[in-house]
## 1
Amino acid sequence: MTTTHVPDAAAEPRPHGASASARVVPSDRVGHIETHGIETVPHADRHGRPSSLFWVWTSANVVYLYFVLGGGLVLLGLSIWEALAVTVIGNLWWAVVGWLAISGPAAGAPSVTIMRAMFGVRGNTVFGAGLGVAIGLFYEIINIAVATLAANAMLALLGVDLGPAGGWIVLVVIAAVSFVFGVYGHATILALSPYFSAALAIAFVVLAFSVLGAADFSYQAAPLPDGERWAMLLLGYAIIASGPLSWGTGADYARYLPADVSKARVAWWTALGGFLPAVLIGSLGVIAATAIDMTDPQLTIGEIVPAWFTPIFLAIVVLGSVTNNVLVAYSTGFYAQGLGVRISRAGTVVITGILATLAAGWFVYVAPSFLDTLNASLELSVTVLGPLVAIYAVDIALRRNRYDARSLADLRPGAPFWYTRGWFVPGTIAMVAATTVSVLMANTTLYVGPVAAALGGADLSAIVGPVLAGALYAVLWLTTNPYRDRRKRPAAASIAPTAPTAATAPAAPAAIIDTDAAASARTQEEPV
């Protein structure tokens, strides 16, 4: 009887850009810089429980941004109950983020590596790594800008006169603090996330008492024509959905878990960690909009909270933005490695962080309206993020979450995920077609697509884009080689521990490892 053997660290290939030190130095230790990059995490380094993912995602999502977005729904003209409903429905996308996370333990690799399976080696540099870097930088910029504005307001409230140079110093310090945790990596983030979550949650609970005490539950939004109301509902949905849709990186934080971990628990704790704070804080922003002007809540919040709490509120805005930026910076480093740069993960975090810091300075001190720019950018980001996340989610379902780490690391022509000249036709067509349709349907303050204009301003991009991408990808996947012909599909087979590495092995279709079979094999072959 033949059993499936999962290669150990020595037998696993080192992909382009991977650090040789990852083979001999323990990678995942608190207070030490993580040495693993986009390469596969060896099974000897796998550890942890799915419940730890809850704290990682909670600490990253107890953020002021959701408070602003919730209030923004009321500014669009929605009633309280409409805004609350949109907040809940838009955040249901967290269930999909949880689903994406299960691919991490299966492959032992970050999302940018796994996406080679759906776009091809070359296609992934555009749709996976390329878009990932752009999106990651965008959210890093948002976090630095929001934190800097809050810090400036807090210092002004305390009577500290910064001056122009002082403002830039604050921005640089905030950026440096958020990026240093991203440099240290997975274990340090995991260890600190419960403490960040607790501190932020306590502060938001205090804020909730003030908001609920000042809320005007009899608030009535100005009447809108039926057509315009539906347009605002759909626009609000697109803005809220942009939050969870920006996290197509769930595998990054789950990849250290053992391959035989419960997929349901990985999905549940990931989704719950993002959904709960997003909905609760977004709802708090909706209610606050009935009592204060949410066009500038950092200043008007002082109208409903005790004077002593105002600087604390601004401090939690800073802390929440920093904790969110930790995860964003961590994943952006992986995406940058996915571009093929020969730089360590820690190095790419630093480089992308410097770029984001410079851009954030422009948003804070040069851009005419940060809030308008933010809303328009979030609305447009859905046109790309929705299709990308949908294709990823469908690929997991079609493959039954079976990803071969060895094949994903093989970047040579003729490798299993090289496909056609480095591109996977189904993923490429689905992504381009769905994104194009989404852009035509988008309705933002800076751009209105022709389809949205024809529909009276209704923005269907956050609904049609993901549905079209997922459906088109599934149809093409099932009707395109190598998956149309079952005989040409990579078949499950055993991999000997002495198998050739990616640098010397012949370019033949590699095995897709069934994680359940791999778990069974470890039980038989490894000492307990």
## 2
Amino acid sequence: MTITPGRSGGRSRELRAASRLVGRRRFLGLTTAAAALAFAMDLPATGTAAAAELDARRITDFPFTLGVASGDPLPGSVVLWTRLAPAPYQPDSGLPAERVDVDWEIAEDETFATVAARGTAVAHPEFHHSVHVEAEGLAPGRVYFYRFRVGDWLSETGRTRTAPAADSQVSAMTLAAVSCQAYHDGYFTAYRHLAEDDVDLVLHLGDYLYEYAVGPAGGARDYTDRSLPALFDHETETLEDYRLRYSLYKSDPDLRAAHAMHPFVVTFDDHETENNYAGSVSEDDVPAEQFLLRRAAAYRAYWENQPLRLAQLPVGPDMQLYRRLQWGPLAQFDVLDTRQYRSDQAYGGAKHAPGPESEDPTRTMTGAAQEQWLLDGWSTSRALWNVVPQQVCFARRRLDLTPEPAVSMDAWDGYPAARRRILDGVKAAGIENLMVLTGDLHRGYAFDIKDDFDDPFSRTLGTELVATSVSSGKDGEEKPSNWATYTAANPHLKFYDGRRGYTTVTLDGAGARADFKTLPYVTTPGAPLTTAASFVTEVGNHGFTPA
């Protein structure tokens, strides 16, 4: 999603210098890429031998300033996360480049009277003293509590849950979908309400942070009681930049509260790296070898700051982020990555009517391997609901009422052949209850997914929910200026709202219910939450109707 920012000027010098060390063809070999990054961007090899050990008694300030988090729940396992940062707004986070032992425990109760598992993890300076624990041996389908300890310091207690067993009887689940949280556009009030909401899982659909500069007053937050350091007041390009930006975002108390209460499943979109990039193609058309160095830094910092498994650890500029999770027999979640492998946007990425360039059948949104993985997963799925968390609008979204209306070249409308292959895969696999979850647009939408978007009477193959932004776009409005145009141009569009917030979805054996929860403002804190609208779709009878 494009926001017009002020761009930084001269912070690409070191990336340009580093890119000259290796040509693009050589760079794309992972071994060469890792070596180049280690030399050029201070990304040393992983391992305990890479740093001396820090005596935890030397940590004199509270180190858990960025909170705790959990994610990617399996029936017997969940990821537990924290990062040691006594001084989060410093490049070194207030710690020397030495490894630290961090104790962890996960219990069946909030008092930790019945501990289910415990151990010690190493916070490596190579990973900015982040900790990713894959807690194993847990019971399926139950709530747990967890915490970390280093030296005499104890973290807050987090709450998480495991996924139900594959053969369990799961009557229902409730998830929350969130996206797009520009710090400089407003407060994360939606997360404070989400922390108090009763959901089983949070799906973050991209734009967890923005690369744009954040001034001393925090942009639209307009701080009067603090001044942010100048090191945030430029666009992120280097590993240090991205790491510091996560420190800023994750120091937000509302975001920390939501992470501490619910397990998250995350996937990135563009702004975690750079606006509207496509594969190895930068928005600014810098050489690919230079941009891939930046992408490697962004992906590294993303993994360090999210509750992700070791399988998602990037190697150079490549990261295996698409993955599949199950919620018993009720739901299968196929989490997509629509940035890393896509073809470059057609027509320069501008809004454009469909044409030969965008309709080229070789164009891909996901890359061939991920596309086949998705189709193969559907062919073997036994879940009642097949849910696809992903980044950009899947349904056709006409933007005007002209005879040849423009569409977004950054969304699936710019990749119609790829969308056609996905829809044909839905039919071939006999998927009866498809739901796509989307972010990016800073608006809430409910779409019916049509077999043929040119024919409003064609078969409905599933539904799509677009979660509005947490803060991006500032306060928003109930009916944007294009509301009448969009609703008239898109008969499969059932709901459109321009306010901030999040969406909850309850899945059960009879159907699904979506609740669009919105805030009247985000540029000042404390906004109340209301449910703007609710919609249902029935099992075996696709299409949204008002609840």
## 3
Amino acid sequence: MSTTAERTDVLVIGSGFGGAIAAYHLAAGGADVTVLERGPWLESKEFEHDYKLGSSYTRVFDFTVGDGMSILGGNCVGGGSVVYFAAMPRAPRFVFDRQGSIGRRMWPGAVSRDTLDPWYDRVEESLSITKQNWNDVSYAGGLWAAACNHSGRTANPLAVAIDNTKCVNCNWMMAGCRFEAKQSLLVNYLPAAIAHGARIRPLHEVQHLSRTPDGSYRVHYNVVHDDDYRLQAGSGVIEAKIVVMAAGAGATPVILQRSEAHLGTMPRAVGRYFSGNGERLNTAVIDEAKAAELFGLERGDGLAYAANHIGKGPTVASWDKLDGSLPEYSRYSLEQLYFPPGLGTILAQVPGATGPSWFGKEKKEILKQWASWLTIFTMIEDDNEGVFGPPPATGNSHRISQQMLGRGNLRYEPTKNTLGAWAASDAEVKEILEKDGLAKVMPWTNDLVGAYTVHPLSSCRMGDDPHTSALDDRNELRDHPGIFVTDGSAVPGALTVNPAMTIAALAERAVPGIVQAAQRRGISVTYGAPAPDGSASGRKNVLPLLPSARG
């Protein structure tokens, strides 16, 4: 390992929502900012329209199999924003008053829907988020809306970070957007950060942190081989006065666990209280004749929601159960979601199977009807029951394959509350889609990879209680001043909706405090940059909330 450490004012670990937002504001404020990203840096023209091994799909994803829970996340410059479906709803008001497994309010007293709304506004301005209308939704979304209406439920088009003037309806969003229609961080915060001098280093995987004699931090990293992520191409150290951790809820706690031998005791909540955002999927095999009979829907060229090439990601959700008057664990959203071949076809079970439910002869038969599958994504309130065990020797997992696949140290045993909420949401999906013979519905199996999530949260969560939270209400790691966590691991619990908007808003909210901490450590930096495109109306909304304005 190199004995000569580089130096930077601020070192950001990860380039997803939590990392990119912090990097932009700190660089725009005058700090010397370096971003380390473990994945590759792909340009839009490199995003391929296939799901072959070795393509952009396997290069930019990280699939980590744990004990009872598997995590699918981004692994590239831009992080999860490159592979997400761009659904950007705000969290319901009741979420911030949740008690969950600890029996008292999980969120810090300083954070509520009211106090977070101005920061949501900032994100909305920066990412050009728009609410779709019914002319924007996919056929699959329209079918889901019609089924909801037919069964006495309501449905709504989703707010999305998509420029519909550029969208070609190709539905390859999970492999990266070739057309820059999806508002990933590659087209806003990251280029703006670079314009202000931030340096982004792909294929740099942080291993642990240690402390310098003057109270700064040394960030130790390995350089990952470009094609085979199991191999190392070097290593190094960078010293920074401020460290912003945004490696994702499946990696940030692992880095901190490995750092404990060098930094001293970590807060108890580091690596505990993990939430998969309560996610679960159901597959419905649609009877095409019934869809035509009940709703008058026609599939046109026959590809309207048939697998890869036509359509969009999620466009319609049913939010009838997002009612704050309902008891905890009975509130959830139901969202139509396209999921590509691979996990979607493997984990789907056969409705009414007489033999094995996710493989075998009967599974082969329903695969012939793949063009008529509709997937419904459920987000419930879980119990934050995930716990990370001892960290692997390097990285966040033991890498099994050249790209994408690893074995992690997360253990997840669903509680009675979580299982009950999943069962209730499964029953609702079944009732909606099986009414009058429209479809046959079954949830995805948990037998193969356990539960699964594309939105990992809460593994280093913020809060007021030092016993049950790793961060204070400004996202600073307890007992380790100068280390901040701004990714999904900071979110206290399941949100019942897609979390990207809330992660981004919390990151925006954290920046003024990070700037203040940087100033105290002698960094010449200010806060006050506009949105990446220069818009400033959102900034006016947050000025009264800044620490200096409150005295």
## 4
Amino acid sequence: MFVPSILLKQLYTHGSLTKTDNGVSFALKNRLKDATLKELKWISFDGEKVPSHKISIQSSNDSDISVDALNDTGGMPFSLRQVITVHLELNEEVSPEKRKIGICFSASPFGKLKFEVEDNVTSPANRKLHIPRDDHDDYGDDIIKKRQSYFESFTDGKLNHVGKYSIDPDKLKGNIEHFIGVAQVPIGIAGPLVIDGEHAKGEFVVPLATTEGTLVASYNRGMKLLNMSGGVKATVVDDAMQRAPVFIFSDARGARDFVTWVNQNISKIREEAESTSSIAKLTYIDHFLSNKFAFLRFNYLTGDAAGQNMVGRATFAACGWILDNYEGIENFYLESNFATDKKASQINIMRTRGKRVTAEATIKREHLLQIMRVEPKQIDYHGRVAGVGSFLSGVNNTGLHSPNGITAMFIATGQDVANVAESSAAIMYSELTDDGDLYVSITIPSLIVATYGGGTGMGTQRECLELIDCYGKNKVYKFAEIVAAVALAGEISLASAISSSDWVSSHEQYGRNR
């Protein structure tokens, strides 16, 4: 299996070359995929191969094996994100000068791999000044207690609540570093909400994690109103996750010719990208030329995962193949800020990032009068006036507060909350029907959600997803439809409150705690 050199070098943990009592050590971290380290062929230091009897490998705190023993036993597991420490019996001094480290080994399923990196030898004393960590078991009780004590002594405080939790820290690998405890956010429920989606069908009671008074009550009121008129229709209309590298050339013509080559070799680029994952599917590559820069926007389907890390790894592999096979590239960056990861942007409103989903409903006039004490034409007129305000402010949302419900659902269900920056974009539309009722719809063009991977598998987060039958594979479209429907309920509730001048009185009644 071909692994680009740029990707191979990521196995080495830069800054890990440390002087020890018996020589030096450095760390390797598997950033590719689950593998078996079959044979360590050689390690070189400044071009000189280190004798095998002077090399040992540590895969855990109580596991240290010589290279000869490793090779004789047929190898050892090297799982994704696992760290192994390589010890070399070499008398080297601490120095800021870069040293060359070469590594050659065979691993299944990759075959023979070889790469060279540069790093300088540092003192172990430098690490003692940092937050306590354990390279081989950073989620064990002992190291967690050490960090808690370190934090308490550093801040001269006490962890009375943070250190109490019901989750298994060992299951947090890949979710958080330097773990010391949890932040507890209150969870309320709203609903049931009737949804007529292609994936979400029926009644749903949704968990909302928030500390904002009136939020749950407001969304619950909107759901009650929507149910009276038949509920919400929800539809996922597009799906894409991006990574956007930039390639730099000597002139604009070189950038233009490169894009032509990329289009001609899209099949091979797709093969390299998809070799890193059984889930990621490269659908197409947009290109944008400016000055002497070629911006490529790789678009993927990522299954039930949000997929930012997945597409980053896939695009890195594809770009490694490009760099190895195209001459004339003067520089390259894996992300050019053109995917606008965790930032609101016009391109993601137009082109989709995550799931593009619409929720819509027609609300009867009598129901608006009964529940909200407001006429449909009041809300419709208010929406058109607010549209002018949206235009003047340059905001990315023509509605009122869809990020409120989205954020509350994200926290409850283990989504990456920073993705609210992109998921905050929304296009709200309303019109009066011939019968005097109110049609409303909201389109969220860049809703980034997951039902598998990331933080969705942790304790309370998984539990909340399971309670709405949205945990696991083949559930992400269902979840997206529910989120959009909930957002619509919040929009109609707040729009009614503002249009009827009921907004401030509601906060006075429900939203004050002092």
